[in-house]
Description:
Elements: E1 2-13, E2 24-39, E3 49-50, E4 53-54, H1 61-70, E5 76-82, H2 92-107, H3 116-131, H4 137-144, E6 147-151, E7 158-164, E8 167-174, E9 180-185, H5 192-205, H6 207-229, H7 232-248, H8 254-263, E10 269-273, E11 280-284, H9 288-297, E12 301-306, E13 313-314
Parallel strand pairs: 3-5
Antiparallel strand pairs: 1-2, 1-13, 2-5, 2-6, 3-4, 6-8, 7-8, 9-11, 9-12, 10-11
Amino acid sequence: MVRTSAPGKVILFGEHAVVYGEPAVALAVSLRFRMRVAPREGGRARVHRVDGHRMDASCHAYFKYAVDKYWTGGPLEIRTDSEIPSASGMGSSAALTTSLMGALIELGGGAIDAERERIARQSFDTEYGVQGRASPTDTSTATFGQGILLAKRAMDGLIMHVERGGAEWYVHRLKVPDLSIVIGYTGVKGSTGEMVARVRRLYDENPLARGVVSEIGEVTMEGVAALERGDAARLGELMDRNHELLDAIGVNHPSLQRLVDAARPHSLGAKLTGAGGGGCMIALTEEPERVFKAIAEAGGQPFMARMGAPGVRRDGD
């Protein structure tokens, strides 16, 4: 039996603007998806089970795609446990997929640490195959951990170059200081597709929106510099500005703003994270307990987390 885990993620800077060639920063957080994978003794050939149920494409799409394409051994028994809320924009499907890919490599005689790029590429292929469209942001963050800078050109810290469906991405590693964040889940499930389409219409029709997108890119690169020097105060200021810019292009939501407003008195900075229209916000803080309480009192579901968590790994058996 192999035990693996992979981290969830938050977008620190650059959501939506990355669609238009601007950079984005994603951070691995300490909430993890955990998995145990073992050969099924006495199981019929190619009949795999997930949490006691027969693996089925309608219920276990990521599992089935990955196992069908990348596993050549016998039937598997898979058990899962997750700290990452599903459909929250925190990369739960990517953490699941990279945990599984790491387990398959270990069961096949390989080692996660020696095969991280392979895990990242195969996990991205799985997400792309299941969703029909994806970027390597979530799967790269879950694989490599710490922080990831996604850009349209190669810069310092380049890990890999990915091309798919006419798009290309340069994935870079970022070292992240050990800072506390509190994540607030609104309970509202926003539609990524709807938010992306909304921004596209505004971007195409309004020159001011194009200026906002460009400024998000500038804020993102300032954020990279602040991360590298461990300047938490400047990071917080830039988070606040990024939130204002995302609000200006129409992807904020009253439930998100309520949690951001509740967190800010005790935070260095707070913003929505991900596509918006619901989902989650994040607050960078030196008073995590107070922010946790404020988010709960404002009607959100708070989660304590640390930035810069390790990527997919084999856990102790």
